[in-house]
């Protein structure tokens, strides 16, 4: 009976003991004890190239790997995924032929070596290698594959420590064209293995500890109203197309209607976003949905998930994560994903200049939405050059049509500004008090519409951080991980090209904030949402919401507010009208999370086979042309470029 109960517990089902039949018990499987993986099971080798040590001296071993170095015709350094081992070649005449072959093999050739582990001679230990106290005296070797001349040397890539870029690395385009070589680098090996470990820990936390069900949702779907552009896939039905899903959003909501209660998926998602920097047309989300839940409980789940899966070598992270409203983020940082590792907050100094003699400031403040906003750059007199100020001015004008004013408090206490003579002593005093201005600091001031001024200063704040860091000022420590919840987003935003119309700030399935629900029929522009973003060091790594589970409200939002064709979502509306429970969820951007965790400069460095800046696979040259004959079953005609058409005619 005990064994049967244990088996039932292992799959997370309810069990009922005969003596307590009236009290069903929800089983909770215990986490399995940590077991070191057997890296040598099922393969030729007896050990990896990174595990041999003094304890193995005297043992006969078999290693497999790539030739990393050849030294003086007497040594070979063999490499595999786990590390390096030095192989010493005996000088006996009996293996002279084999020695000659090995010494003439190109680097990166693949061999297997059998030999005996021996200590290195006194004074020759290499403490920088995990195997640096031993070497393997070769008895036999077999060439498994000879390497041709490579388009670039891989030694520098392999030697580079994780997180350290070398000057000798080739262009990223060349590395992506030969990604199978680039993957041999220590950095990419580290990134992909850490990614795998974190995902496995996430699965353990969600599925084993909290009963989530891992469900695969379809890749071929249909067009979704709003959101990013979708990839279109032709079908054999004339004029009908699939779309690749931006996310499993609708599927996971219908899983909740279906009573699955807790859903999880490592989901592949697709967005045709063109050539946006550091984006990928296909990417991975940790996708989560729950029934009978509210915002606070979802946030608590995610905090526990990240803490549980966080790599030990990256240090502890504190929970709960701090929280900030959307309005607070925009007012203090000018962005909805603030980097809180450094200060330089935006400060409102409108009251300082309410009665100023500076005419353009007085004119701005005469308008209802007018404001004077400022950021303070500590030691800006020292670090900001004249050219920097000119570039900042051009940036603000080009992107936001905002003019800038610079005010510097010199180390000797004098004020330097185009308006220094007009500033009164009272204004100077109030400005110092409002901004905590110190000698040597520079104020960057802009005036205009409050929202636009905030956005402009938010951009300039990050630009100033770049400038200061280029001059040796440590502002954004990559070893610090500042998680932050941003909440209370607006439910709707005015469309850029048509401000009198609305679009969803998150997506059309987000529920209104309970305190603002009554406004949705009268003043939808004032309604806050139950949308929440998770931010890490100024990067959005997750976004979610409590969903609309009422069919009538969902229909109203689609048809009356967003002016979308609700017929495209008839399946979802019918599901919501079939007894949908309250539900909500979140999607974590796995690629971005891993990139920030390992300190990668691009998400391409944590994806095994990424696309280029323009969405191309440089290794296989995808996307590629398809012949008219192959397109025929899909009832598609293409206006071929002349050179492509000629090539097909010839073939």
Describe this structure in words.
There is one protein chain. The chain contains 19 helices and 22 strands. The protein is of the alpha+beta class. An eight-stranded mixed β-sheet has the order 6-9-10-22-21-20-17-11, with helices on both faces. Strands 1-2-3-5-4 form a five-stranded mixed barrel. A five-stranded antiparallel β-sheet has the order 12-13-16-14-15, sandwiched between helices. Strand 2 (75-80) and strand 3 form a beta hairpin. The radius of gyration is 31 Å and the shape is globular. The N and C termini lie far apart (71 Å).
Descriptors for this entry?
651 residues, alpha+beta, eight-stranded mixed beta sheet, five-stranded mixed barrel, 19 helices, 22 strands, globular, disordered N terminus
Task: Chart the SSEs and their pairings.
Blueprint: H1 2-10, E1 60-71, E2 75-80, E3 83-88, H2 96-104, E4 110-119, E5 134-145, H3 155-159, H4 172-177, H5 179-182, H6 186-210, E6 213-214, E7 232-234, E8 241-243, H7 249-257, E9 262-270, E10 282-291, H8 295-309, E11 323-325, H9 326-333, E12 347-348, H10 359-365, E13 370-377, H11 380-383, H12 386-400, E14 404-409, E15 415-417, H13 425-435, E16 442-449, H14 450-470, E17 483-487, E18 492-494, E19 502-504, E20 531-536, E21 539-546, H15 551-561, H16 570-576, E22 583-589, H17 590-598, H18 628-631, H19 642-650
Parallel strand pairs: 3-5, 6-9, 11-17
Antiparallel strand pairs: 1-2, 1-4, 2-3, 4-5, 7-8, 9-10, 10-22, 12-13, 13-16, 14-15, 14-16, 17-20, 18-19, 20-21, 21-22
Helix pairs in contact: 6-8, 9-14, 12-14, 15-16
């Amino acid at each position: 009976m005990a064994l049967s109960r244990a088996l039932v517990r292992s799959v997370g089902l309810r069990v009922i003991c005969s003596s307590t039949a009236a009290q069903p018990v929800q089983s909770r499987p215990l986490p399995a004890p940590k077991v070191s993986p057997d890296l040598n099971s099922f393969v030729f080798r007896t050990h990896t190239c990174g595990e041999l040590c003094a304890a193995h001296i005297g043992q006969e071993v078999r290693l497999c790997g790539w030739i990393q170095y050849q030294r003086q015709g007497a040594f070979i350094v063999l490499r595999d995924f786990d590390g390096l081992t030095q192989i010493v070649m005996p000088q006996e005449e009996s293996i002279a032929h084999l020695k000659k072959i090995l010494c003439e093999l190109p680097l990166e050739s693949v061999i297997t070596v059998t030999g005996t582990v021996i200590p290195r001679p006194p004074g020759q230990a290499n403490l920088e290698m995990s195997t640096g106290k031993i070497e393997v005296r070769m008895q036999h070797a077999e060439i498994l594959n000879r390497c041709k001349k490579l388009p670039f040397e891989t030694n520098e890539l392999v030697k580079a420590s994780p997180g350290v870029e070398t000057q000798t690395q080739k262009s990223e385009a060349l590395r992506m064209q030969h990604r199978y070589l680039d993957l041999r680098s220590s950095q990419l090996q580290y990134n992909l293995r850490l990614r795998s470990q974190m995902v496995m820990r996430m699965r353990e936390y969600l599925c084993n500890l909290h009963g989530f069900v891992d469900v695969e949702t379809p890749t071929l779907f249909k067009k979704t109203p709003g959101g990013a552009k979708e990839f279109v896939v032709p079908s054999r039905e004339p004029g009908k197309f699939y779309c690749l899903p931006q996310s499993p959003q609708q599927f996971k909501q219908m899983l909740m209607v279906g009573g699955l209660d807790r859903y999880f998926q490592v989901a592949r998602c697709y967005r045709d976003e063109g050539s946006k920097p550091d984006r990928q047309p296909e990417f991975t989300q940790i996708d989560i949905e729950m029934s009978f839940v509210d915002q606070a409980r979802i946030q608590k789940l995610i905090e526990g998930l990240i803490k549980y899966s966080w790599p030990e070598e990256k240090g502890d992270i504190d929970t709960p994560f701090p929280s900030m409203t959307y309005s607070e983020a925009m007012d203090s940082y000018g962005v909805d994903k603030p980097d809180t590792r450094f200060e330089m907050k935006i400060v409102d100094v409108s009251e300082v200049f309410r009665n100023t003699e500076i005419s353009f400031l007085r004119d701005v403040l005469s308008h209802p939405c007018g404001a004077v906003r400022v950021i303070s750059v500590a030691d800006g007199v020292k670090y900001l050059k004249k050219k920097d100020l000119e570039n900042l001015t051009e940036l603000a004008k080009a992107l936001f049509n905002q003019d800038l004013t610079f005010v510097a408090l010199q180390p000797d206490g004098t004020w330097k500004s185009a308006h220094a003579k007009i500033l009164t002593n009272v204004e100077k005093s109030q400005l110092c008090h409002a901004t905590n201005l110190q000698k040597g600091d520079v104020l960057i001031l802009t005036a205009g519409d409050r929202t636009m001024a905030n956005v402009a200063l938010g951009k300039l704040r990050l630009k100033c951080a770049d400038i200061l860091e280029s001059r040796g000022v440590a502002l954004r420590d990559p070893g610090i991980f500042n998680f932050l919840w941003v909440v209370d987003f607006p439910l709707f935003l005015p469309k850029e090209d048509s401000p009198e119309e609305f679009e969803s700030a998150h997506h059309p399935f987000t529920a209104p904030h309970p305190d603002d629900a009554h406004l949705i029929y009268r003043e939808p522009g004032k309604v806050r949402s139950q949308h929440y973003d998770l931010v890490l060091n100024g990067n959005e790594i997750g976004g979610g919401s409590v969903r609309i589970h009422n069919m009538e409200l969902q229909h109203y939002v689609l048809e009356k507010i967003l002016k979308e064709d609700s017929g495209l979502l008839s399946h979802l509306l019918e599901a919501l009208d079939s007894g949908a429970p309250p539900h909500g969820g979140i999607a974590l951007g796995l690629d971005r999370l891993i990139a920030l965790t390992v300190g990668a400069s691009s998400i391409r460095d944590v994806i095994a086979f990424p696309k280029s800046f323009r969405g191309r696979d440089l290794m296989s040259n995808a996307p590629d042309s398809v012949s008219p004959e192959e397109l025929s079953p899909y009832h598609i005609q293409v206006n071929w470029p002349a050179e492509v058409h000629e090539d097909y005619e010839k073939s």
